[in-house]
Structures are given as structure tokens and as C-alpha cells.
Design goal:
This protein has 164 residues and is an alpha+beta fold. It has a single domain, classed as Cytidine Deaminase, domain 2. 24% of the residues lie in helices and 23% in strands. The protein is built from three helices and six strands; from the N terminus they run βαββαβαββ. The chain has helices spanning 21-33, 74-85, 113-126; strands at residues 11-13, 44-52, 57-61, 91-100, 131-135, 141-145. Strands 1-6-5-4-2-3 form a six-stranded mixed beta sheet, sandwiched between helices. Helix 2 (74-85) packs parallel to helix 3 (113-126). The chain is globular, with a radius of gyration of 16 Å. The structure holds zinc ion. It comes from Mucilaginibacter pedocola. InterPro entries: CMP_dCMP_dom, Cyt/Deoxycyt_deaminase, Cytidine_deaminase-like. Belongs to the cytidine and deoxycytidylate deaminase family. Residues 21-164 form the CMP/dCMP-type deaminase domain.
């Protein structure tokens, strides 16, 4: 028997003002994306923004549906948009934020497992990691270098992914 240990390192910034100009701007793009959220059921708006190597920014938000499972998280709306239209332009960073009138958010929102799986495959697809910025409005920002560190046991089978 061999015991293994996995450690995850991330940086916490106490406010968005501590970030460099590029990361700050991407967090503000995620805030802008909240305006397009379609979330009448959860009343929980999520905004995501992708910074691509060319400098282009893709903004997206969560899109709910009365048939609940038909909706999609902001992160995957953004990533699938990237995959269909900009996959030749690697993702450098992704910012995610959230807002609700129902209660006060005190820490950054973290992505669901399905989104982490998709993010991790996007990293493999472009053969380079991207930075995650999880931003709590008026609160801290968690910065993680590489999605793979949040999803160390992601499902991946090389032989199923010859096209990647
Ligand atoms: Zn998700």
C-alpha cells in the first residue's frame, strides 16, 4: 500500500484592487456578464469572462430553463462558445463571479464539478493551463494557476482523445 497526498495551492487577494491591471479588468468583465444572466428560478447570477491570448474577451452568464436540467452554468456557456468559435486562440485566464439579492456572498463562488471537468479538458485541448480568478464582489479573489489543480482526478483517457 502506498499513501499519496495531493496539495492545492492558491493565492487569496483581499480585494480586487490588489490584482494587476489585466486580472482586475477580467474580473470586471465577469461582473459585466452578470447583466445577461437568465436565472429567474435560482435568482443566483453567475458571470464568467475568458481572456484569450489575442486579447479578446468572451463574456457569458448562467442560462436557466424551466426544465431545470436544460440550463447551463456560466463557465460552460463561455467555454463552449470558445470551443466553437475561438479554439485556435488559447485561453489565458478565466474570471468567475456571482451575485444574488437573496443573501450576502462572503467568499468567491467555486465552479461545479461538471464545469471543472470541461475546463480541465480545455486546458488539455490547448496544451497549456490557464489562470482561474474566483471573485467575490466587495470581497476576496482566489487565484488558481491551472484548472488541473482543482480537478486532480478529472476523467481523462488518452485513447478516447486522440483528436485533442
Ligand atoms: Zn458549473
Amino acid at each position: 500500500m502506498t499513501e499519496h497526498e495531493i496539495k492545492i495551492a492558491f493565492n487569496e487577494y483581499h480585494s480586487v484592487e490588489e490584482l494587476n491591471a489585466g486580472d482586475y479588468s477580467l474580473c470586471m468583465d465577469a461582473v459585466d456578464a452578470l447583466a445577461t444572466s437568465h436565472s429567474p428560478y435560482s435568482k443566483f447570477k453567475v458571470g464568467a469572462a475568458l481572456l484569450l491570448q489575442s486579447g479578446k474577451v468572451i463574456k457569458a452568464s448562467n442560462q436557466e430553463n424551466v426544465a431545470y436540467p436544460s440550463g447551463l452554468c456560466a463557465e460552460r456557456v463561455a467555454l463552449f462558445h470558445w470551443g466553437t468559435s475561438y479554439a485556435d486562440d488559447p485561453i489565458v485566464a478565466m474570471a468567475v463571479t456571482a451575485k444574488t439579492e437573496e443573501f450576502e456572498l462572503l467568499k468567491p463562488v467555486t465552479s461545479c464539478g461538471a464545469c471543472l471537468q470541461v475546463m480541465a479538458e480545455c486546458e488539455k485541448r490547448q496544451n497549456s493551463p490557464f489562470k482561474m480568478l474566483l471573485y467575490c464582489i466587495d470581497g476576496p479573489v482566489w487565484a488558481i494557476d491551472g484548472v488541473h489543480s482543482m480537478m486532480p482526478f478529472m476523467f481523462f483517457e488518452e485513447r478516447l482523445s486522440q483528436a485533442i
